[in-house]
Protein backbone atom coordinates (compact mmCIF):
# COMPACT_ATOMS: atom_id res chain seq x y z
CA UNK A 1 0.00 0.00 0.00
CA UNK A 2 1.25 3.44 -0.92
CA UNK A 3 2.36 5.98 1.62
CA UNK A 4 -0.62 8.19 0.72
CA UNK A 5 -3.07 5.32 1.27
CA UNK A 6 -1.50 4.65 4.67
CA UNK A 7 -1.88 8.26 5.74
CA UNK A 8 -5.45 8.48 4.42
CA UNK A 9 -6.35 5.29 6.28
CA UNK A 10 -4.91 6.66 9.49
CA UNK A 11 -7.02 9.84 9.18
CA UNK A 12 -10.17 7.82 8.47
CA UNK A 13 -9.56 5.50 11.42
CA UNK A 14 -8.95 8.47 13.71
CA UNK A 15 -11.93 10.53 12.60
CA UNK A 16 -14.53 7.80 12.33
CA UNK A 17 -13.28 5.59 15.15
CA UNK A 18 -13.39 2.43 13.03
CA UNK A 19 -11.16 -0.66 12.92
CA UNK A 20 -8.33 -0.41 10.43
CA UNK A 21 -9.30 -3.61 8.61
CA UNK A 22 -12.75 -2.18 7.86
CA UNK A 23 -11.16 0.58 5.78
CA UNK A 24 -10.95 -1.26 2.47
CA UNK A 25 -10.68 0.03 -1.09
CA UNK A 26 -14.45 0.01 -1.66
CA UNK A 27 -15.54 0.90 1.87
CA UNK A 28 -18.08 3.74 1.69
CA UNK A 29 -17.60 6.33 4.40
CA UNK A 30 -21.34 6.68 4.92
CA UNK A 31 -22.69 3.19 4.16
CA UNK A 32 -19.87 1.05 5.58
CA UNK A 33 -17.96 3.19 8.04
CA UNK A 34 -20.84 4.91 9.85
CA UNK A 35 -20.04 8.47 8.81
CA UNK A 36 -22.79 11.08 8.63
CA UNK A 37 -22.71 13.90 6.09
CA UNK A 38 -20.94 16.24 8.49
CA UNK A 39 -18.28 13.58 9.13
CA UNK A 40 -17.53 13.47 5.40
CA UNK A 41 -17.08 17.25 5.35
CA UNK A 42 -14.68 16.95 8.27
CA UNK A 43 -12.77 14.13 6.58
CA UNK A 44 -12.27 16.30 3.51
CA UNK A 45 -11.05 19.13 5.76
CA UNK A 46 -8.62 16.73 7.42
CA UNK A 47 -7.34 15.51 4.04
CA UNK A 48 -6.83 19.08 2.88
CA UNK A 49 -4.75 19.90 5.90
CA UNK A 50 -2.76 16.68 6.04
CA UNK A 51 -1.77 16.86 2.39
CA UNK A 52 -1.72 20.66 1.91
CA UNK A 53 -4.22 20.52 -0.93
CA UNK A 54 -7.53 22.18 -1.81
CA UNK A 55 -10.44 19.87 -2.48
CA UNK A 56 -13.22 21.84 -4.21
CA UNK A 57 -16.81 21.09 -3.20
CA UNK A 58 -17.73 19.37 -6.47
CA UNK A 59 -14.71 17.07 -6.15
CA UNK A 60 -15.46 16.43 -2.48
CA UNK A 61 -18.88 15.11 -3.47
CA UNK A 62 -17.27 12.40 -5.61
CA UNK A 63 -15.16 11.12 -2.71
CA UNK A 64 -17.48 8.44 -1.35
CA UNK A 65 -15.11 5.59 -0.53
CA UNK A 66 -11.65 5.12 0.89
CA UNK A 67 -10.45 4.24 -2.63
CA UNK A 68 -11.97 7.47 -4.02
CA UNK A 69 -10.08 9.49 -1.43
CA UNK A 70 -6.74 7.83 -2.12
CA UNK A 71 -7.21 8.23 -5.86
CA UNK A 72 -8.14 11.90 -5.65
CA UNK A 73 -5.36 12.80 -3.23
CA UNK A 74 -2.75 10.86 -5.21
CA UNK A 75 -3.69 12.94 -8.24
CA UNK A 76 -3.67 16.21 -6.32
CA UNK A 77 -0.45 16.18 -4.31
CA UNK B 1 -19.76 33.09 36.47
CA UNK B 2 -19.49 33.28 32.68
CA UNK B 3 -15.74 33.16 32.23
CA UNK B 4 -14.66 33.66 28.62
CA UNK B 5 -10.95 33.77 29.43
CA UNK B 6 -8.93 32.41 26.49
CA UNK B 7 -11.86 32.70 24.09
CA UNK B 8 -11.78 34.87 20.98
CA UNK B 9 -14.91 36.73 19.92
CA UNK B 10 -15.89 38.57 16.75
CA UNK B 11 -18.68 41.14 17.12
CA UNK B 12 -20.21 42.87 14.08
CA UNK B 13 -21.91 46.23 14.37
CA UNK B 14 -19.65 47.01 17.32
CA UNK B 15 -19.79 50.72 16.50
CA UNK B 16 -23.47 50.78 17.44
CA UNK B 17 -25.09 51.04 20.85
CA UNK B 18 -26.01 47.38 21.33
CA UNK B 19 -22.91 45.99 19.58
CA UNK B 20 -20.64 48.14 21.71
CA UNK B 21 -22.22 46.88 24.91
CA UNK B 22 -21.96 43.27 23.67
CA UNK B 23 -18.25 43.77 23.01
CA UNK B 24 -17.78 45.32 26.45
CA UNK B 25 -19.56 42.41 28.17
CA UNK B 26 -17.60 39.70 26.36
CA UNK B 27 -14.37 41.57 26.98
CA UNK B 28 -15.16 42.03 30.67
CA UNK B 29 -15.69 38.26 30.93
CA UNK B 30 -12.12 37.76 29.70
CA UNK B 31 -12.56 37.28 25.96
CA UNK B 32 -10.29 38.74 23.34
CA UNK B 33 -12.54 40.73 21.02
CA UNK B 34 -12.41 41.82 17.40
CA UNK B 35 -14.66 44.82 16.84
CA UNK B 36 -16.15 45.07 13.38
CA UNK B 37 -18.23 47.78 11.78
CA UNK B 38 -18.30 50.14 8.83
CA UNK B 39 -17.03 53.24 10.62
CA UNK B 40 -13.46 53.13 11.89
CA UNK B 41 -13.55 56.04 14.36
CA UNK B 42 -16.11 54.65 16.86
CA UNK B 43 -14.48 51.22 16.68
CA UNK B 44 -11.10 52.71 17.52
CA UNK B 45 -12.62 54.74 20.34
CA UNK B 46 -14.13 51.58 21.84
CA UNK B 47 -10.86 49.69 21.34
CA UNK B 48 -9.02 52.44 23.20
CA UNK B 49 -11.53 52.21 26.04
CA UNK B 50 -11.16 48.43 26.31
CA UNK B 51 -7.36 48.57 26.17
CA UNK B 52 -5.87 45.10 25.89
CA UNK B 53 -7.18 41.99 24.12
CA UNK B 54 -8.93 44.00 21.42
CA UNK B 55 -8.63 44.33 17.64
CA UNK B 56 -10.46 46.40 15.04
CA UNK B 57 -11.50 45.18 11.62
CA UNK B 58 -13.73 47.32 9.40
CA UNK B 59 -16.10 45.51 7.09
CA UNK B 60 -18.83 46.49 4.62
CA UNK B 61 -21.45 43.81 5.15
CA UNK B 62 -23.15 44.62 1.84
CA UNK B 63 -19.98 43.55 0.02
CA UNK B 64 -19.58 39.77 -0.34
CA UNK B 65 -15.79 39.81 -0.63
CA UNK B 66 -15.47 42.01 2.42
CA UNK B 67 -17.71 39.64 4.41
CA UNK B 68 -15.77 36.55 3.29
CA UNK B 69 -12.54 38.19 4.39
CA UNK B 70 -13.73 39.20 7.88
CA UNK B 71 -13.60 35.84 9.73
CA UNK B 72 -10.21 35.11 8.20
CA UNK B 73 -8.83 38.49 9.23
CA UNK B 74 -10.25 38.12 12.75
CA UNK B 75 -8.81 34.60 13.10
CA UNK B 76 -5.45 35.81 11.84
CA UNK B 77 -5.34 38.49 14.53
CA UNK B 78 -6.78 36.51 17.45
CA UNK B 79 -5.71 32.97 16.55
CA UNK B 80 -9.30 31.72 16.18
CA UNK B 81 -12.92 32.80 16.30
CA UNK B 82 -14.61 30.90 19.13
CA UNK B 83 -17.57 33.24 19.55
CA UNK B 84 -19.33 35.00 16.68
CA UNK B 85 -21.96 37.65 17.39
CA UNK B 86 -23.85 38.78 14.30
CA UNK B 87 -25.22 42.03 15.58
CA UNK B 88 -24.92 44.40 12.62
CA UNK B 89 -28.15 45.34 10.92
CA UNK B 90 -29.80 48.07 8.94
CA UNK B 91 -33.35 49.28 8.42
CA UNK B 92 -34.85 50.79 5.30
CA UNK B 93 -38.47 51.12 6.32
CA UNK B 94 -41.25 51.67 3.87
CA UNK B 95 -44.84 50.63 3.41
CA UNK B 96 -45.09 47.34 1.62
CA UNK B 97 -46.83 48.82 -1.41
CA UNK B 98 -44.09 51.41 -1.79
CA UNK B 99 -41.10 49.22 -1.00
CA UNK B 100 -38.56 49.09 -3.82
CA UNK B 101 -36.61 45.99 -4.77
CA UNK B 102 -33.49 47.80 -3.65
CA UNK B 103 -34.91 48.54 -0.18
CA UNK B 104 -35.88 44.89 0.15
CA UNK B 105 -32.62 43.48 -1.16
CA UNK B 106 -30.22 45.72 0.73
CA UNK B 107 -31.81 44.84 4.08
CA UNK B 108 -31.82 41.12 3.28
CA UNK B 109 -28.21 41.32 2.09
CA UNK B 110 -26.81 43.05 5.15
CA UNK B 111 -28.98 41.48 7.85
CA UNK B 112 -29.42 37.92 6.61
CA UNK B 113 -26.98 37.05 3.83
CA UNK B 114 -23.97 38.49 5.64
CA UNK B 115 -24.98 36.54 8.75
CA UNK B 116 -25.07 33.36 6.66
CA UNK B 117 -21.65 34.09 5.18
CA UNK B 118 -20.07 34.92 8.53
CA UNK B 119 -21.50 31.78 10.15
CA UNK B 120 -20.15 29.69 7.28
CA UNK B 121 -16.79 31.41 7.57
CA UNK B 122 -16.24 30.53 11.23
CA UNK B 123 -17.52 26.94 11.15
CA UNK B 124 -14.33 25.22 10.04
CA UNK B 125 -12.36 26.49 13.00
CA UNK B 126 -15.17 25.77 15.46
CA UNK B 127 -15.64 22.23 14.10
CA UNK B 128 -11.94 21.51 14.56
CA UNK B 129 -11.95 22.98 18.04
CA UNK B 130 -15.13 21.06 18.91
CA UNK B 131 -16.33 24.27 20.56
CA UNK B 132 -18.10 27.33 19.26
CA UNK B 133 -20.77 29.87 20.06
CA UNK B 134 -22.78 31.75 17.47
CA UNK B 135 -25.24 34.37 18.67
CA UNK B 136 -27.36 36.10 16.05
CA UNK B 137 -29.14 39.29 17.02
CA UNK B 138 -32.68 39.03 15.69
CA UNK B 139 -35.56 41.28 16.74
CA UNK B 140 -38.98 41.07 18.34
CA UNK B 141 -40.21 42.29 14.96
CA UNK B 142 -39.03 39.04 13.38
CA UNK B 143 -41.62 37.22 15.50
CA UNK B 144 -44.45 39.75 15.56
CA UNK B 145 -44.08 41.70 12.30
CA UNK B 146 -44.27 45.48 12.16
CA UNK B 147 -45.94 47.80 9.67
CA UNK B 148 -43.36 49.44 7.44
CA UNK B 149 -40.74 46.82 8.19
CA UNK B 150 -41.57 43.94 5.84
CA UNK B 151 -37.96 43.72 4.73
CA UNK B 152 -36.47 44.03 8.22
CA UNK B 153 -38.94 41.58 9.77
CA UNK B 154 -38.26 39.05 6.99
CA UNK B 155 -34.52 39.32 7.56
CA UNK B 156 -34.86 38.88 11.32
CA UNK B 157 -37.31 35.96 11.05
CA UNK B 158 -35.06 34.40 8.41
CA UNK B 159 -32.20 34.59 10.85
CA UNK B 160 -34.16 32.49 13.36
CA UNK B 161 -34.90 29.68 10.87
CA UNK B 162 -31.34 29.75 9.61
CA UNK B 163 -29.94 29.57 13.13
CA UNK B 164 -32.11 26.57 14.01
CA UNK B 165 -31.01 24.70 10.90
CA UNK B 166 -27.36 25.37 11.56
CA UNK B 167 -27.80 24.52 15.25
CA UNK B 168 -29.11 21.08 14.30
CA UNK B 169 -26.21 20.49 11.92
CA UNK B 170 -23.38 21.31 14.30
CA UNK B 171 -24.75 20.51 17.76
CA UNK B 172 -22.79 17.25 17.88
CA UNK B 173 -19.57 19.23 17.45
CA UNK B 174 -19.97 21.33 20.58
CA UNK B 175 -21.14 24.37 18.63
CA UNK B 176 -24.30 26.20 19.68
CA UNK B 177 -26.26 28.63 17.53
CA UNK B 178 -28.85 30.87 19.15
CA UNK B 179 -30.65 34.17 18.64
CA UNK B 180 -31.29 37.08 20.94
CA UNK B 181 -34.37 39.09 20.00
CA UNK B 182 -34.35 42.59 21.49
CA UNK B 183 -37.51 44.65 21.89
CA UNK B 184 -37.34 48.45 22.19
CA UNK B 185 -33.86 49.29 23.36
CA UNK B 186 -32.41 52.72 24.12
CA UNK B 187 -29.90 53.42 21.33
CA UNK B 188 -28.98 56.28 19.05
CA UNK B 189 -31.68 55.01 16.69
CA UNK B 190 -34.50 55.15 19.27
CA UNK B 191 -33.22 58.45 20.73
CA UNK B 192 -34.51 60.08 17.56
CA UNK B 193 -38.11 59.26 18.51
CA UNK B 194 -40.04 62.11 20.12
CA UNK B 195 -41.68 61.79 23.53
CA UNK B 196 -45.08 61.10 22.05
CA UNK B 197 -43.74 58.26 19.91
CA UNK B 198 -41.89 56.82 22.89
CA UNK B 199 -44.97 57.01 25.09
CA UNK B 200 -47.01 55.20 22.47
CA UNK B 201 -44.43 52.44 22.19
CA UNK B 202 -44.27 52.06 25.96
CA UNK B 203 -47.99 51.36 26.19
CA UNK B 204 -47.13 48.03 24.54
CA UNK B 205 -44.35 47.19 26.99
CA UNK B 206 -45.49 45.71 30.32
CA UNK B 207 -42.17 46.61 31.91
CA UNK B 208 -43.07 50.25 31.27
CA UNK B 209 -39.65 51.31 30.06
CA UNK B 210 -37.26 50.87 27.16
CA UNK B 211 -34.57 48.23 27.52
CA UNK B 212 -30.90 49.04 27.91
CA UNK B 213 -28.19 47.82 25.56
CA UNK B 214 -26.48 46.21 28.54
CA UNK B 215 -29.53 43.99 29.02
CA UNK B 216 -29.07 42.64 25.50
CA UNK B 217 -25.36 42.20 26.11
CA UNK B 218 -26.06 40.15 29.25
CA UNK B 219 -28.22 37.75 27.22
CA UNK B 220 -25.48 37.41 24.61
CA UNK B 221 -22.86 36.82 27.29
CA UNK B 222 -24.92 33.99 28.73
CA UNK B 223 -25.40 32.29 25.35
CA UNK B 224 -21.67 32.70 24.60
CA UNK B 225 -20.65 31.15 27.90
CA UNK B 226 -19.55 27.56 28.56
CA UNK B 227 -22.53 27.30 30.95
CA UNK B 228 -24.96 27.63 28.01
CA UNK B 229 -23.52 24.59 26.24
CA UNK B 230 -26.85 22.73 26.29
CA UNK B 231 -28.83 25.68 24.90
CA UNK B 232 -29.00 25.66 21.12
CA UNK B 233 -31.43 26.63 18.37
CA UNK B 234 -33.36 28.88 20.70
CA UNK B 235 -34.32 32.54 20.63
CA UNK B 236 -33.95 34.48 23.86
CA UNK B 237 -36.49 37.33 23.85
CA UNK B 238 -35.40 40.41 25.77
CA UNK B 239 -38.32 42.80 25.40
CA UNK B 240 -39.81 43.74 28.77
CA UNK B 241 -42.78 41.48 28.15
CA UNK B 242 -43.77 43.22 24.94
CA UNK B 243 -44.20 39.86 23.21
CA UNK B 244 -44.35 36.74 25.36
CA UNK B 245 -43.37 34.04 22.92
From TrEMBL, chain A:
4'-phosphopantetheine is transferred from CoA to a specific serine of apo-ACP by acpS. 4'-phosphopantetheine is transferred from CoA to a specific serine of apo-ACP by AcpS. This modification is essential for activity because fatty acids are bound in thioester linkage to the sulfhydryl of the prosthetic group. Pfam families: PP-binding (PF00550). SUPFAM superfamilies: ACP-like. GO terms for molecular function: acyl binding; acyl carrier activity. Pathway: Glycolipid biosynthesis; KDO(2)-lipid A biosynthesis; Lipid metabolism; fatty acid biosynthesis. The keyword Signal does not apply. It comes from the Bacteria. Gene3D superfamilies: ACP-like (1.10.1200.10). InterPro entries: ACP (IPR003231), ACP-like_sf (IPR036736), PP-bd_ACP (IPR009081), Ppantetheine_attach_site (IPR006162). The modification O-(pantetheine 4'-phosphoryl)serine is found at residue 37. Residues 2-77 form the Carrier domain. GO terms for cellular component: cytosol; membrane. Its main location: cytoplasm. Keywords: Cytoplasm, Fatty acid biosynthesis, Fatty acid metabolism, Lipid biosynthesis, Lipid metabolism, Phosphopantetheine, Phosphoprotein. GO terms for biological process: Kdo2-lipid A biosynthetic process; lipid A biosynthetic process. It is found in: Cytoplasm. HAMAP family: Acyl_carrier (MF_01217). Carrier of the growing fatty acid chain in fatty acid biosynthesis. Belongs to the acyl carrier protein (ACP) family. This is Acyl carrier protein. It comes from Gemmobacter caeni. The gene is acpP.
From TrEMBL, chain B:
GO terms for biological process: fatty acid biosynthetic process. The active site is at residue 152. The keyword Lipid metabolism applies. PROSITE patterns: ADH_SHORT (PS00061). Keywords: Fatty acid biosynthesis, Fatty acid metabolism, Lipid biosynthesis, Lipid metabolism, NADP, Oxidoreductase. GO terms for molecular function: 3-oxoacyl-[acyl-carrier-protein] reductase (NADPH) activity; NAD binding. Residues 7-183 form the Ketoreductase domain. Its EC number is 1.1.1.100. CDD domains: BKR_SDR_c. It catalyses: a (3R)-hydroxyacyl-[ACP] + NADP(+) = a 3-oxoacyl-[ACP] + NADPH + H(+). Pathway: Lipid metabolism; fatty acid biosynthesis. Signal peptide: none annotated. NADP(+) binds at residues 38, 87, 152-156, 185. Belongs to the short-chain dehydrogenases/reductases (SDR) family. Homotetramer. NCBIfam families: 3oxo_ACP_reduc, PRK05653.1-1, PRK07231.1, PRK12826.1-2. Catalyzes the NADPH-dependent reduction of beta-ketoacyl-ACP substrates to beta-hydroxyacyl-ACP products, the first reductive step in the elongation cycle of fatty acid biosynthesis. This is 3-oxoacyl-[acyl-carrier-protein] reductase.
